Amino acid sequence: MFPLDKFKELKTPFYFYDTDLLQKTVETALNAANRYGYNIHYAVKANANPRILSIISKNGLGADCVSGGEIKAALNAGFPADKIVFAGVGKADWEINIGLDAGIFCFNVESVQELEVINELAYAKNKIASVALRINPEVDACTHHHITTGKQENKFGINLDQISHVLDKLKQLSSVKLIGLHFHIGSQLTDLDPFRILCSQAVNIQKQLEEHKITVEHINFGGGLGINYENPEQNPIPDFNGYFEIFHRHFPLKVSQQIHFEPGRSIIGQSGTLISRVLYVKEGTSKKFAVLDAGFTDLIRPAFYGAYHKIENISSEEPVEIYDVVGPICESSDCFGKQIALNKCRRGDFIALRSAGAYGEIMASQYNCRQLPDSYFYDSL
Ligand code: LLP
Q1: Over pLDDT 90: what percentage of the chain?
Q2: Confidence of residue 152 (pLDDT cuts 50, 70, 90)
Q3: Which residue's C-alpha comes closest to atom 8 of ligand 1?
Q4: Ligand 1 within 6 A of CB of 238
């Protein structure tokens, strides 16, 4: 699966992307969404590598952005402005202006204060900004507490008890137009039941809007579909059919209403692998360490969230030994996994950290004055 002969010429660590799998994943997601006429906006935050963005945009998806920089990256990669949504709890004025100038499809608004600023900035440009209210639906996504967003204590969205106040405020603002509702309850959901609960909450919120004589055209359910980190080979493409079917069954569409999604991880997660070399095999008193040339500066998820990434020695077929797999950074948290069974490691062996396409390269840093990892693609190595 990995072209080791070509890897030999490359400086490690680097990200290696399976562009065929990405293309298949995008097609599967699109086919599943098209069954119900659903719209997909790829969550750029998961991976903004220009080549990846361009593959995704060529397939006709929209983009979900959370910063002015992401809007620029999406436009550069060919995503049409009228398929760009812009979310985020702290949009700066210059970022809002980028969205207004480009004529993006929708601002997902997270507070009354933000609504007032967008209204002011749009007014100054003699434009009307389309907005969706991001509602905090108080649904527990049952995922890691760092990546759960739909509970009342989270900073995201407008709380249920504030909706009426926001709707009243909207009536006074002439340069924003309410076109939708937006939700996002969390990321890496493998139990899909919270999405069913989200649907019933969305139905209730719609009823509340109707009491104000408002029907919105667009409902955006965010992202969150998880991937299988334990078995990337067996489940390279997430179950998009099962995912969309939940919304089809539990959220009855009104005439002329459209549904939107913002998947990130489920689109790109399994297509990326972090490739590194073993620098040293260090014998501790009671354990062995495989010291890699990749560290948490290249892939922060294990250190930051305690996340699991499957680790493989792709150079060796020697009998398995047990290692703590660590990086070179001067922090104890720079550890990719403890007590990991790997084919016997030797200096120079290639180690693959799987399922690293989402929130991998994009979260890399230069701590310790390290270089950012390079990226290579299956079809152009
Ligand atoms: N829409 C909104 C408003 C979001 O906040 C997110 C992710 C998404 C869509 C895409 O969610 P996805 O389909 O990728 O689950 N760095 C963390 C994940 C943070 C997710 C933040 N928001 C990680 O490495 O697990």
Answers
A1: 93
A2: low
A3: 223
A4: no
CA-134 nearest atom, ligand 1: 3
102 band by pLDDT with thresholds 50, 70 and 90: very high
Given a cut of 70, is residue 326 above it in pLDDT? Answer: yes
For the chain, which domains are there? 4-14+270-380 (2.40.37.10), 19-266 (3.20.20.10)
Backbone conformation region of residue 355, classed left if phi is above 0, alpha if psi is from -120 to 50, else beta: left
pTM reported for the whole predicted model: 0.96
Helices (H), 231-339: 240-250, 265-268, 301-305
pLDDT at 357 over 70: yes
Q: What count of Cα atoms within 13 Å lies in the side-chain half-sphere of residue 323?
A: 27
Alpha carbon separation from 247 to 29, 219, 252, 332, 337 (Å, rounded) = 14, 11, 8, 43, 36
Cβ(262) to ligand 1 under 6 A?
A: yes
Q: For position 60, what pLDDT does the model report?
A: 98
192 CA to centre of ligand 1 in angstroms:
16
Atom of ligand 1 nearest to the CA of 149: 5
